[in-house]
Amino acid sequence: MSTPDRIEELLSATKSAFMSGALVRLKLGGYHGSEPDLKSIEVKKITVKDGDKFSFTYRYKTRDIIKNFIQPEALALLRSGLKDEFRSAQLATTEFDMGFERNGAKMRLKRTEVSGREAPSTDHNRAKNRPLTVTDKPWLKALGIAGKDGVVRNDAQDKFRQINKMVEIFAPLIHAIKTERPLIVDMGAGKGYLDFALYDYLANVANRPAGIVGVEMREQLVSDGNSTAQQSGFDGLSFQAGTIMDFDASGADAVIALHACDTATDDAIFKGINAGAALIAVAPCCHKQIRRQMEAGQPDGRLEVMLRHGIFLERQAEMVTDTLRALLLELNGYKTKVFEFVSDAHTPKNNLIVAEKDGRLGRDRDAVLKQIAEIKTMFGIEQHYLEGLLGL
Ligand SMILES: C[S@@+](CC[C@H](N)C(=O)[O-])C[C@H]1O[C@@H](n2cnc3c(N)ncnc32)[C@H](O)[C@@H]1O
């Protein structure tokens, strides 16, 4: 059989399974296309208001993106993906599996019969993969997101979307941690929105149990959080009163801090580094420490034209603070990325620094230290608070 026919054979089997309700999933792997960090695509059938669709979950290194397509669009996308970008695919149906492999122009397709397998329900299939579709939950009510009737309140729709988004971002990051039951510490947990949502998702949807501890200095929030966790039956979620610096984070696999104020973010990073956490993820809040130093110090004269405008000074302080944080993480064996994690329509404080420990310093240590020194000189900074914590 000529090579392109293998693709058509797989697509035809996928289409028939889709139409007969026998499709379990089609997974495309071995990606070698041009999209950075795309790993695989998982395709399922879903039934939405306007009919049956192919639901594509694009799995990136740190997040998933879901897009739904009508049949002709989906098949065209699959066809070109299999031809050019993906080296392998696994089709699972209720009756048989098909494994596809492409090596240059050579293609192989292997069919194996299976029995006793059921197709997943397609109704709200996408919603089922999300943590917060069942909204009649004690924690959503306690946090004021759902009303007494268990339905998301109109004025909490934005918050609800944000929480969903955070879980979409954090779940794959937690998933990548090798520990069987990772310990996640959320520094400056506040009311614990992220903790409840993530715990619920990991325990009840993703079947990836984790322990979560929220550290918070406001005692009332801690006691409210603990009673809601108890009411929800979330045995592995607890809140502890105290400061980030006083918390013993040893044994933490992930240290997270969302909008912990100013240098509290650095306290969290420091605790994560000291614990050797596999993941450190922080969404910084205000950047006062570096802003004050830029105002008091002597930045490069050429920057004066920018820094005399308060708003630009603020933005520069944010970029400089977080660039230095990323470099200091790199210096400690973390591979670091910075990206926007919720739309800036929700909050202007929407950058997330994600650092994953790989133990290696990607570059020469002296080169990183030199870069840190140069940035500090350029912006008139004496010392980043995190440098002090790290004894630099
Ligand atoms: C802006 S809130 C964010 C809460 C939560 N992370 C969220 O995103 O919804 C910051 C929280 O961090 C707490 N916090 C700030 N500095 C802290 C510290 N050094 N130790 C413990 N908690 C701290 C504050 O009390 C506050 O509840």
Describe, in plain words, how this protein is organized in 3D.
- The protein has 392 residues and is α/β, with parallel strands linked by helices.
- It has two domains: 124 residues, no CATH class; 261 residues, Vaccinia Virus protein VP39 (Rossmann fold), CATH 3.40.50.150.
- Helix content is 39%, strand content 26%.
- It has 13 helices and 14 strands.
- The strands form two sheets. A seven-stranded antiparallel β-sheet has the order 4-3-2-1-5-6-7. A seven-stranded mixed β-sheet has the order 10-9-8-11-12-14-13, sandwiched between helices.
- Strand 6 and strand 7 form a beta hairpin.
- Helix 1 runs antiparallel to helix 2 and helix 5 crosses helix 6.
- It is globular and about 70 Å long.
- About 1% of the residues have low confidence.
- It binds S-adenosylmethionine.
- S-adenosylmethionine binds next to strand 9 and helix 8.
- This is SAM-dependent methyltransferase.
